[in-house]
Design brief:
By secondary structure, this protein is mainly alpha-helical. 90% of the residues lie in helices and 0% in strands.
Length: 177
């Protein structure tokens, strides 16, 4: 039993010595163990597999983070797309309204031009004296429009039947247009 106690004491002293040397960083059991593992063929493959597993785990974690970032970005882009689609629909509606308004304006202009053609035809068939008398009673813009649309010879005949001041005023306005 004495031998057993001596051996146990020696083991305890050695263990305590190794612990203290490791604690004060004089030796490194970890690096000694890694060196031992790397030199042992079966354990070497295990360590390499474990390192590969760690790398795969890190890569999986980084891919999961990238995936979350992409999902977040995708959500933002989808919201932006919905906002742009709403804006596009509003602009389409505005455009449809403007097209309708333009169509109405064109129809109104066409109708106005038709009325003007009829008026011009009526005035062109009148005697110059009668046309001049009626032109004096019209609004000046309407009178100018009629004179512009008549043939030059008819306009000249009407203007000669007006008093000189009025004819001069009409001529200066006709010159500007």
């Amino acid at each position: 039993m004495k031998k057993f106690l001596i051996i146990l004491s020696i083991i305890l002293v050695l263990g305590l010595g190794v612990f203290l040397l490791e604690y004060f960083s004089v030796i490194s059991l970890k690096s000694w163990g890694e060196a031992l593992i790397v030199r042992t063929p079966f354990l070497k493959e295990y360590v390499q597999t474990n390192e590969a597993y760690q790398l795969l785990e890190e890569r999986t974690k980084s891919l999961a983070e990238e995936r979350e970032a992409l999902i977040s970005r995708n959500t933002e882009l989808e919201e932006e797309l919905r906002r742009l689609n709403r804006r596009f629909r509003q602009q389409e509606e505005e455009l449809a309204g403007l097209i309708q308004e333009l169509t109405e304006l064109r129809e109104e202009k066409r109708s106005e031009e038709e009325r003007m053609r009829k008026l011009v035809k009526i005035y062109s068939e009148m005697e110059a004296v009668d046309a001049a008398r009626i032109i004096l009673s019209l609004e000046e813009d309407l009178a100018i429009d009629i004179l512009l649309n008549l043939k030059e010879k008819e306009t000249a005949a009407i203007l000669t039947n007006l008093d000189p001041e009025t004819a001069a005023r009409f001529i200066s306005v006709l010159k500007e247009r």
